[in-house]
Amino acid sequence: MKNLSRLLFTMLLLTSMGNVMAQDENNPWAINFGINAVDVYPVGEDAPQGGYFEEFFNVEDHWSILPSLSTISVSKYVGDNFSVQAGGSINRINKWGQTEDNFTNPSLRVNDLAYYAVDGNVRYHFANIIGSSKLDPAVGIGGGYTWIEEGAYNTFSTEAGSNNSVGAGTLNASLGLTYWFTDNIGFYVESKYKHSFEDYLTKHFQHSAGLSVRFGGTDTDGDGIYDKNDACPDVPGLEAFNGCPDTDGDGIEDAKDSCPNEAGLAEFNGCPDTDGDGVADNNDDCPTVKGLKTLKGCPDADGDGVADAKDKCPSEAGPAANGGCPWPDTDGDGVLDKDDNCPKEVGTVANNGCPEAPAVPDQVVLDKLNSYAKTILFDTGKSSFKKETYSVLQSITAILKEYPEANFTIEGHTDSVGSKTTNQSLSDSRANAVMAYLIENGIDSARLNAYGFGEDYPIDSNKTKAGRVNNRRVEVKLKK
């Protein structure tokens, strides 16, 4: 009973270790419990024991079996197909082989020698290699410590059979197979060879069979997918989506579904297209009316690129800048009011909707020019203007600007008072003074020429004061 208590304590300790260790793989822990058989015969010894593997499967003659729960172990998967295992077992040995001449009773009996052991080993599993989720073959190597009660063939003390337990370390090699009925429950068988380092403890085989229970994997959301492999461990989901949900059942997981509560299409990231216009409802400003992609799913009856809901003239094409309505052309000259500088007066496109000015002035305009020109007043004997003349010059400038294609000649004339040479020079300077003013005020110089004619072309008599006033003049003429 003392030895049995020790074994039970060891098993409880190992079980406790399994429960407190970190759980970082799916079901990394397993508990094996079952029955075991000890065979001291096929170990390569002289009689009453036999050679290696001799009568290895002779259960009736050589196996000592304790027909009750007699072995338990705890193992942990550590990765790369390896696991570590520790366990304990008890038994009663009542078979020790056979003598050479014992043919009638080939089983040599001993007096139920107490057996107990604590072992640890490292196992390599082949389930992943053979691609099986049910069959799990494994090989192991390790060591342990085994005690066997002294008897007639394993005497250590002087008093054989005195309930003394002889213990020694062992080097172990194992071969096992587990068949998993479910992810967590399996049936295992294992054969283990234990090689003692001391002569007083016999080498032996230990066979075991029983149930294996895997545990340790966590499934927080209860969807059958362990947290380690569950991309959404706190929300029940589907295996197809690594544990993430598909609330609307459209085959698109919620995390990638733009409309997770409404079944939709993959091409629209899980959103529906109610009106069938190729625009998902979540991006469709008019989800119940078939429309255009370019207008976010809204219709455009007049095809002007402005959605009907925003088109002030939905039945008449017009630009967006004018609210979908066409621009007016009040004067009907083909130039829209927005571009027409003269929207109420028929004009030409070339002149921005305004009437074209004549290329050259008519005689009425020329007469008007010269009526202005004759009122240009100069300081006596000079080419400088009198103050009241500037308004006249401005009027002349304005008329010339109305005819940008016409060229003009500015002629200066004097009366006959003074020398001819002086009068010629004065007429030149006065004609050029007028031309200079016009150029300074925006008239292109290429359009103008200035000439002085002195006293040669009078238009009145130089014998009277009034005649001489008329002869002192400037004339503006159209250049042919």
TrEMBL record:
SUPFAM superfamilies named in the record: OMPA-like, OmpA-like, TSP type-3 repeat
Keywords: Cell outer membrane, Ion transport, Membrane, Porin, Signal, Transmembrane, Transmembrane beta strand, Transport
Keyword Transcription regulation: no
Subcellular location, record wording: Cell outer membrane
Keyword Metal-binding tagged: no
Primary location: membrane
Highest taxon listed in the record's lineage: Bacteria
Chain ranges of the OmpA-like domain: 365-480
Recorded topology in the membrane: Multi-pass membrane protein
InterPro entries: Bact_OuterMem_StrucFunc, OMP/PagP_B-barrel, OMP_bac, OmpA-like, OmpA-like_sf, Thrombospondin_3-like_rpt, TSP_type-3_rpt
Signal sequence residues: 1-22
PROSITE patterns reported for this sequence: OMPA_2 (PS51123)
Cross-referenced PANTHER family: LIPOPROTEIN YIAD-RELATED, STATOR ELEMENT OF FLAGELLAR MOTOR COMPLEX
Protein name: OmpA family protein
Organism: Olleya sediminilitoris
Source lineage: Bacteria, Pseudomonadati, Bacteroidota, Flavobacteriia, Flavobacteriales
